[in-house]
Amino acid sequence: MSRKRCLILGASGGIGEAIVHRVVEDGWAAGVQYYTNEEKIRSMQQDVPKDQWAGAFQGDLSTEEDLNAFLNLLPAEWDAVIFAGGHMYSGMFQDMDAEDMDALYYVHVKALWMTTRHVLPYMIQQKHGNIIVISSIFGTEGASMEVAYSSVKGAQNTFVKGLGRELAPSHIRVNAVAPGLIQTKMNGHLTLEDLQALENDIPMGRAGTPDEVADAAGFLLGGASRYVTGQILHVNGGWS
Prior knowledge:
Layout: E1 5-9, H1 14-25, E2 29-34, H2 38-46, E3 53-58, H3 64-73, E4 80-83, H4 98-126, E5 129-134, H5 138-141, H6 147-167, E6 172-179, H7 192-201, H8 210-221, E7 232-235
Parallel strand pairs: 1-2, 1-4, 2-3, 4-5, 5-6, 6-7
C-alpha cells in the first residue's frame, strides 16, 4: 500500500522543519519546497526513511516568473499541502517600497493561491485532500510596524474560510494554524529586552516552540480533525 503524500512549503524554516518531522512520524511521505537552504534540506533528507521521502523542490516564490517556474516543475499529485514558508517585514508602513510589498504578496498570497490551484484537480478527483496554512496571530489582530505582513496573513485566513466552504462537498478540508510568538529565526531581530517584554504579555509566560506549531498541524492533518474545516487554530499561549 502506497503512503499518502504531503507537500510542505517552506520546509527549511524552523516551523517547516518541525512539520516535516511530524508528518514523517505520522507515516506520511514528505515532499519539501525550499528557496536557498539546500544544505538544511540535504541534512533533513538523511533523517527521513527513503520510502517516506517524496522529493525536494527548489523554488523562489517571491515573483510571478519564479513562481510559475516552480509550479511547472512541481508534481500535482499530493494528498495534503502545508504552507509553512514566508518572511516578514518589520518597519514603518510608509517606509516600505513596492518591491517589499510585492514580495510579501507573492510569497504569502499568490503562491498560496497558485499552488493550491495546481494541486486541487488531483484532490478533487480523489475525493479527499487536506490543505493547511501556517498563518499568524497578526492575521487576526494586526500589528504596528508589521502592517503589510498582517494584511497578507489576514488574506490567508479569509482564503482558508472561503475555500474550506467551497471544497467541503469534495471532502477536502482547508484549515490554518495561527501561531503567536514562536522561537524561530524570524524573531531574531528582537532584542532580549523586547523578547522578554513580549513574553511577559503572554498569559503562559513564554514563547512557543516550532514543535508545538507542528503538533497543531499534525492534528489538522489527522483523522481526529475529520469534521474540522475552514477554521483558524490559534497556538499562542493565550496571547491576543
